[in-house]
Structures are given as structure tokens and as C-alpha cells.
Amino acid sequence: MSWLRALKETTRSGLKVERHRLEPLFALRATVGLALVVSSTLALAGPEAAVSSAFGAFQAAIATFQRSWRPRPVLALASGTTLAITTFLGYLAGAHLAVFITLLAVWTFVAGLCWALGPTVGVIASSNVAMVLVTVTLPTTVAEAAGHAFVIFLGGLVQAALIVLFPIRRWGAQRDALADALAAEADYARRLRHDPTAPFDPAPLMAAREAAVVTARQARTRPSELHGARGLAERIRPVLASLADPAVGAADEGRERDRVRELLAAAGEILDTAARAIRHGEPVALPPGAVAALRTPDTGAILTGPAARAARRLAALLDDVVETATPDTGAAAPRTVLERLALVLRGKSPELSLPARRLKLSSAESARAVQSDTRPIPLIRPGVQALGPRAARTLRDELKVTGSPYLRHAIRVTAVVVLGYVLGHFLPFGHGYWAPLASVMVMRPDFSQTYGRAVARFGGTIVGVTLASVVVFATEPGVPLSVTLAIICAGLMYLLLRTGYVVGQVLVAAYIVFLLGTIGADVGQTVYERVLLTLLGGVLAMISYAVYPAWETPRLRTKLADWLVADGRYAAAVVHQYAEPAGPGEVRQALLDSRAARIAWQDALKRAATEPVRHRGLSRAAADGAGEALAQIARIGMLMEAHLPERGATPVPAAARLADALRESADQGAKAVRERRVPDWKPVRECLENWDGEGVPDRVVLRGARLLLDALEELSDALEPAPPR
């Protein structure tokens, strides 16, 4: 992509405004917290303290709107506490230019490196640098500096207290993540009716897993319907795929295919119903049509072999999903209906009413599909005390990584902020902090966000400052009215935060103009200097990325190689289970690693698409073809996982040799990809040729192995260099 086109694309993304579901109650609570803090400090300590408290409460509320699975009060307290500490240090160093610039450089570097800990930490750290640049300009003594730091902390404390006292939709983010995962599988089931090999994006399942990781305190209070459903969703996906795929499931056409389509449609309806129930915390209201379709007693006569096995597993899993998704209110009707449904598809009488969990099932697949009575062991997230050492280790490791994008971002943002502050200090404008403030707020580790946000910030600043200045000149507000207008702007920003960065910048610019007006800032000067210095900060940020970039495009081959290794190990782990049925394995962890590598590849490919960099050995067509081949490898592994042999089944010795060949070939293939060579799969091919000679009559594992080889060959074909024209 050329620079001109890249600039057009990033400008368009930066100025984009989207329709998004508004959350007025959350915005109202944050606005009330801001109003309480500002009005109290204004009455007790005067305008300067009110401005400091306003920045603390404002930033603490912003932190609670970030996408994080941490409790919102923790985010508000973390933001308020870190801002108070850094602001106090800034106050102490503010009287000495060299000392303050040194402190600013150190803190900016750490804040830039904090993006390695996640976007939420990165946003909080970068916002702290921006707020320090603003608040440190307020005249103060050391004693007053401590007072200002305290009211900043008080702002975060008030926001955290309001969240605790007035909770809105408890566990809402976790409910949404789990409901989105079930809804994604419902959509997948419907698409499988028309395309038996339809792709599935595992991102909703990964988000649901992240949401399911809780602290020890959260594990004791988590609603019952958020226990276990994610694990069931994970197990349903391969069952749906294996039921639909003609390679290991029902035939392409005929009665079997018609019956599979009915089961998939019914599964989609029930999963959608369970998703709605979890999202709103309501009992599951089963759709009668779907229940009737699943209760058809002739399923066992129509489906045979792996397809029948998958149908039985699907029935048991849907039974558990409905039971898990229903809040613990004593209602037993939904559970009873699907218990009878599961009995029907297991070949039992529809009149039996014994709970499915109490049946003495003989088949291992039914036993795996039914949960135990014990509550699932929760995934525990480290507490706040354990985060410090872990974060320190992560940051230390980033300093040692050659070419780390986070390290390059830290160096880049530090240089820009220091340079911007020095230029702003010596330029004859006053309030020179606006240049570095604009830089630190727009700069991100990747190119597209940095350029898009720079354009949006400049445009939003012009509009916001102009509108606020018109209001000030027309009304000449005093301190109370200025504070009121600032709070209104903040409230609108909270409400419209997710609609687009440019919208937020319009309101933030107006908020700062009104807020600084309470301490006597000259509005006429504010308009002129803020626009020019914001432009300067944005230009510095954009130039810095062009001069010292961290392009994603050259790293695409590395990301692709990582995905190949992860997929190969996942497929090998699944195949090895056929050699040692129900033996110790690493299928689950290998699956998670494969998904993480896939998401990393997709994110890298998305970022690279907007970069003004040539493909450097991996064209867009090659990247797309290779991605499809690797997704196919993961799908085949998933199909084979759905039919893993039960404990005590006859081992398949050739499967162990195939698993070793897959691991070896994946490692060697990844090395070839990194070195811009075409991978060769000779070990896998030879293993299959010898396997065919043994005559092992296992339909699933043998067909799956052949499909794996086909997918690997497709990967090599995609990476073949294009013939010269």
C-alpha cells in the first residue's frame, strides 16, 4: 500500500463515527461521581483543587469504561492512585525544567512499555502522563501538592465507591461474553446446514474464556449460570462440525443429511435461547419446535456410526447447556424436557424421567458429554498483590526482546513527548504542554491507530475548542457555570465514548476549555494555542512512526510460522490420543495455543493491511491462502477430537508415529516459512503410506490423517513463489 493510500485509509478510520449501543446508566453514574467530587472540592478548597479532583474523577471513570475483566472498582482505584502518585512527583519536579523533563521521560517510557501488559493498562498509563502534563501547571507548594494529589486520589475513590454502592448489571461483561460464545455457535450450527465445512471464528470462545478467569473473591460470588457453560460451548463446537462434515459424519445427501439438518437447526435455536437467558439472567424458555425436532424417536435408526455418536453427544451437551444456563431459582421444567430429550437420542424410552446425570451410561462419549455434579474448578486470576511482580517480569522481558514493538513504541513516544514539551516550552504560546499531551494520547504501538487518532484528535480539538469558546464568549460564565458545562461535556463523552474517537475528542476539548476557565485561563488564547500545539503534537507523532516504525508486515512470516507450529502440535496431540486412548494428553492446551496463534495472525494481518510497506516475501494472496490452509488443519483436528476413542478402546499404533511426524514436520515447516522456503511434508506422507499398508480399519482417524496431509499440501501451494511475468 502506498503512503497516500495509507493516509487516506487511516484518516477515514480516525474520523469514522459508528452507531453503538449506548449505556446511559453507566454514563450517569460516572457523571454523578465527577459532579460530587468537583462540587465538593470547589466549595471546600477552591477552583484549583476542584480542577485537580476533576481530572482524577474524570480519568478514573474513563478507566472503568475500558474493556477489562477486572472488577470496575479496582480499575477506578488503580487509575486514581497511580495518577495521584505521578502528579505529586510532577508537582515536586515542576519548578525545575531539567528535573521535570527527566521525570517526564522516565514515566513516559514506562507508560509506553506498559502496553505490553494489555490495552487497559496502556490506556491508564498514557492517560496519567497526559494528566500530569496538565495538572502540574497549577501553581502550588509542596504541601499543596500533597493536597492536590489527595483530591485526585479522592476522585478515583468516589468513582469506585459509586460502583460498589450502585451496581449496574452485575457480571454484565461476563454474561455478554458467554452469551456471545453460545450465539456464535448457534450461528455456526445454522451455517453448517448449508455448508458442512463452514468456517468458525474462535474469537468469541476465547473472549468467553478470558471472561471466565476470575479472582478468588469473584469465584465465591459468581452466578450459577456462569459456571460450566463455557466448557460445554467448547465441547459443542467439534460435535456440531463432526455431525455435519460428510468426511466423518452423515452422507452428503439422503435421509441422513436431512436429519442432520433438522438437528443442526434445532441446536441453533436452543443455543440462541440459552444465550438470551444467560445475557439477561432469566430462565430458559425452550422453543417447542426445536424440542420436537430433537425428540424425533427415529434418529437412532436413521443415523449410524460416527454421525449417530455425534447426535447422542449433541443431545447430552444441549441438555447440560440448558440446565447450566437456567438461574438457580428452583424451576425444574426446562431441565426435565431436555433430560427426556437426551434419553430419546440415547435410545431410551421417552417416558423415562430419570435425570440424565444419574443414568449408568456404558459409552465413554456419553459419559464425557454429561457433567459431574461437582462445580467446575474456576480459572483463577491473580489478585492485585500478585500483579506487581508479574508486571515487572513482563516489562523486563520486553526490554530484552530484539525488535519488540512495545519497546520501540516506548522509545518513540518518549522522544516525541520530551521534544514536544521542550518546543512547547520555548514557543511563544504559553501552555506548551498541549503538544506533548496530544502526542501521548494519540500514539499507539501500531501505525493505523496512531495516524487515525492523530487526525481525529486535531479535527476534534478544532471543533470542541471552537464550540466551547463560542459558548464562553457568548455567556461569560462564572466559576459555577463553567464547572457545570465541564461536567455536562464529560457526561456526554461517557455516553458517546464508543461511537468514535473523534466524537470523544470534541467533548474532551470542550471539557478542558470549560474546566481551565474556572481558574481564569484566557479563552481567546486557549483557542489559538491549543489548536496550533495540538497540530504540532499530532505531526510529531506521525513523523516519529515514519522515522522509527514498528511495521507488522515484515513479521507476518513469523506469525504464520508460529500458527503452523501451534496447529501442528494440536493435530499431533489429537492423533496421539488414538494411539493411547484416554491416556494423558495435551489436547486442551494445544487447542488454546492454536487459537491464540490464529488470533495473533489475524490481528497482524489486519494491521499490516493498512501499512505503507511492501509485502517483503509474503503477498496478500499467499497470506490468504496460507491462512485458509492452517484454518483447515485446525478444523480437521477438531473433527478428530470429536471422535476420540473411549477408555479401553483398541490402540492404533500407527497414530503415534503419525503424531511424531506431524510435530517434526510442523517444526521444520515453520523454519522453512521463516526462511522464505516452501515447506515439505515428506515425513507425514511416508507415515501415511506405511499406515495404508497396515490396513487399520478406523474411518475417522485414517480419513482425518489424509485430510491433514491435503491441508498441509495446500499450505505449500499457497507459499509457492509466483512465476515471473
UniProtKB/TrEMBL annotation:
Segments passing through the bilayer: 26-45, 100-125, 145-166, 410-434, 454-474, 481-497, 503-524, 531-551
Keywords of this entry: Cell membrane, Membrane, Transmembrane, Transmembrane helix
InterPro entries: Memb_transporter_dom
Record flagged with keyword Cell membrane: yes
One GO CC term, this protein: plasma membrane
Superkingdom: Bacteria
Recorded topology in the membrane: Multi-pass membrane protein
Name recorded for this polypeptide: FUSC family protein
Native organism: Streptomyces mesophilus
